[in-house]
Specification:
Blueprint lengths: L7 E3 L1 E4 L2 E8 L4 E2 L4 E2 L4 E2 L15 E4 L2 E2 L4 H11 L5 E4 L4 H10 L3 E3 L5 H4 L5 E5 L4 E6 L11
Parallel strand pairs: 3-7, 4-8, 7-9, 9-10
Antiparallel strand pairs: 1-12, 2-10, 3-11, 5-6, 11-12
């Protein structure tokens, strides 16, 4: 599937709420314990494709969590330190990812009808309405917006 402006993906609510913002798409799972720096909201995991990239204030789109049960504690720390992602969209629901979203207290959606990692791009402007179970592509990272034009 090729996503165009106006495309709506549907999924299962993990944490209700709605936010609009820039997507940060990770092609790989993320390790919480030792994989992120909660103080800066940066992915620090060695050899991760997004090593050194900050997720603070962005909607984190990723395949899921990996590592130990400490994953959720590290993401809770991002909430407490003000460095949390704006929202979370993950491909596969695991207890680590779901609990991480709950304690981070950001809108979160999972198990979408289309793999969001494959159709969304870093920099896309999206509307995550986890209460309704939808993600809408508002504008492509290249500047194309809903209603045509740039």
């Amino acid at each position: 599937m090729t996503a165009t402006v106006g495309t709506v993906l549907r999924g299962r609510t993990v944490v209700p709420g709605a936010v609009t913002g820039e997507a940060l798409v990770s092609p790989a799972t993320i390790s919480g314990w030792g994989g992120i720096d909660p103080a800066s909201g940066t992915i620090v995991e060695a050899r991760h494709p997004l090593q050194g990239v900050c997720f603070t204030g962005r909607i984190l789109v990723f395949p899921g969590a990996k590592g130990s049960s400490g994953w959720s504690a590290f993401f809770q720390s991002t909430r407490l330190l003000g460095t949390a992602p704006l929202g979370m969209i993950f491909t596969v629901t695991t207890t680590k990812a779901a609990l991480g979203a709950v304690v981070t207290r950001v809108p979160a959606l999972a198990d979408l009808d289309v793999d969001p990692v494959r159709v969304l791009r870093t920099g896309d402007r999206i509307r995550l309405d986890a209460t309704a179970g939808t993600v809408e592509l508002l504008a492509r990272a290249d500047g194309h917006r809903a209603g045509g034009g740039t």
